Amino acid sequence: MAIIGAGYAGLAAAVRLADAGVPLTLFEATRAAGGRARRVHIAGTHLDNGQHLLLGAYRQTLALMERVAPGSSTRLLRRLPLHLERSGAFRLRAPHLPAPAHLVAALLFARGLNWSERLGAIGFALRQRLGRFRAPPDQTVAALLAGQAARARRELWEPLCLAALNTPPESASAQVFLNVIEASFAHHRADSDLLLPAADLGQLLPEPALRHIEAQGAEIRMGTPVRGLAAGPGGWTLTTDSGQRHFAAVVLAVGPHQLKAFAASSPALGQLAELHATRGYQPIHTVYFQFQGARLSHPILALDGAPGQWLVDRGQLGGPAGLLALVISATTPELAASPLALERLARAQLQRGFPNLAEPLWARVLAEKHATYSCLPGQSAPPTEPAPQLFLAGDYCYTHFPATLEAAVRSGAAAAQALLSKR
Ligand SMILES: Cc1cc2nc3c(=O)[nH]c(=O)nc-3n(C[C@H](O)[C@H](O)[C@H](O)COP(=O)(O)OP(=O)(O)OC[C@H]3O[C@@H](n4cnc5c(N)ncnc54)[C@H](O)[C@@H]3O)c2cc1C
């Protein structure tokens, strides 16, 4: 078997297949595993390509971490009960109560909302629960929230939408938003916990996963882009720079923006690549600032104003003291066009919010143009096996959740399961 792509989807598939005793070869185009959640090396520094926040509800990702490195889901992730705080103006904190009472209590005592706004938010949450978290397929988050007070939308729901779906509420899918709300708040209190990586993204899962499958005899081909994929008798022929190889089955686990390279392999892949190109992608920019020993009041804070929404204190998460990461989700095209302007605006935003911070020692802007596919209404999952013995995995294949690590992991496990069931 061959797996193309060592992002979270490809790694999840590889672990499942290796555990089932299936001989496999994993091809990864770059030199580092992790895909859109990877460690990068820039100007002599190791940084993550972006801040990755997990939720307690990400069960399959946590289980995969445990499978490849027992204890790692508690050792490498800092678990914080839901706590959203923005410069003293707004605070939502979930007390230690069973779900969904913890959400009701959090909303009831939310700082920065008046009583009528709090009760309106609680009413909204309870109505969604009564309605089994269902929304019309074509509804946007903005339409879903239309009855909410402007301040509750601005302070609470819209930041949650942007953080979870990386898509502005005006175009984001109400149904996927409700799926995330349900997964986080409807079942167990710990599902809404925020889990912040306290190790770099290479150590978090990709490197232990590679070691795990290698120990079971898998062949790992890093730095080996697959250039061609052609159906042949009894399987698929893969072309790489070092020649052709034949495999009985293939799991294609590349990002949706990378599917076009395989459009010639099967008409279904061509259509899928086109569909995603039309629906579009949302970028995420990260502006890293290294300060001399700065420390925030909390490892992650919501930000006032623009361009950033979140500030992560990497010094509190196993990184160097004073390293702050400012996160800009769904960056507008105007801002994305000029990293220098973005850095200046980010610096100004920090100065407004944290006037005591000195000049940074250095700053770096990391851009991910295709961070997530646009989470629009009406998205449906592609077939798991679009052509015989060709299985798809990737965050875009598990459309119950937005583009997340959990969606990628679930899709990889499902592709492996489908492949195993055909053997
Ligand atoms: C900056 C940023 C912040 C994010 N924040 C969060 C967050 O807070 N929480 C969250 O859950 N998710 C977050 N995400 C989304 C999350 O990272 C993705 O949903 C997830 O990593 C997708 O995994 P994947 O395996 O589906 O695809 P990818 O990670 O894109 O993996 C595809 C892999 O295939 C390889 N590949 C492509 N073409 C070929 C080829 N021809 N041959 C061989 N290999 C190939 C690629 O190099 C890559 O390694 C964020 C993403 C970014 C970029």
Quickly describe the structure.
This protein has 423 residues and is α+β, with helices and mostly antiparallel strands.
Q: What structural keywords apply?
A:
423 residues, alpha+beta, Polyamine Oxidase, Chain A, domain 2, 3 domains, five-stranded parallel sheet, 34% helix, binds flavin-adenine dinucleotide
Please give the structural blueprint.
Layout: E1 2-4, H1 8-19, E2 25-27, E3 39-42, E4 45-48, E5 54-55, H2 59-68, H3 72-75, E6 77-80, E7 83-86, E8 90-93, H4 101-108, H5 115-130, H6 141-144, H7 150-165, H8 174-185, E9 194-197, H9 201-204, H10 206-215, E10 219-221, E11 228-232, E12 235-240, E13 243-247, E14 250-252, H11 267-279, E15 281-290, E16 300-302, E17 310-313, E18 323-329, H12 333-336, H13 339-353, E19 362-373, E20 390-392, H14 405-421
Parallel strand pairs: 1-2, 1-14, 2-10, 14-20
Antiparallel strand pairs: 3-4, 5-9, 6-9, 7-8, 11-12, 12-13, 15-18, 15-19, 16-17, 17-18
The structure holds flavin-adenine dinucleotide (FAD).
Flavin-adenine dinucleotide (FAD) is lined by residues 4-10, 27-30, 35-37, 49-50, 52-53, 225-226, 253-255, 258, 261, 284, 368, 371-372, 394-395, 403-406, 408.
What report would you give on this structure?
This protein folds into three domains: 2-75 and 198-279 and 377-421, FAD/NAD(P)-binding domain (3-Layer(bba) Sandwich); 82-192, no CATH class; 281-373, Alpha-Beta Complex (Polyamine Oxidase, Chain A, domain 2). Helix content is 34%, strand content 22%. A hairpin with a 2-residue loop joins strand 11 and strand 12 (235-240). It has 423 residues and is α+β, with helices and mostly antiparallel strands. The model has no long low-confidence stretch (mean pLDDT 96). Helix 1 (8-19) packs parallel to helix 10, helix 2 (59-68) crosses helix 14 (405-421) and helix 4 (101-108) runs antiparallel to helix 5. It has a five-stranded parallel sheet with strand order 10-2-1-14-20, covered by helices on one side. A five-stranded antiparallel sheet has the order 16-17-18-15-19. The radius of gyration is 22 Å and the shape is globular.
